[in-house]
Write a structure and sequence with these properties.
66 residues, mainly alpha, 53% helix, 0% strand, globular
Amino acid sequence: MPFKQVQTEKLSQAVSRQIEQLILRGILRPGERLPSERELSERLAVSRPSLREAIATLQAKGLLVT
């Protein structure tokens, strides 16, 4: 039985996945503004640099525009 190494996920990846799911489910609608960086980082309990990295990932995918 082949085993694969368990890899930890970066915090920014978890954040971007969560925001992406909210977009895909229609909870966050096109044109809707996200909360401020400070508020969003507090709600998600992550650092602002991790949040910025997640947002940059979503921008690269074309899911967010600043």
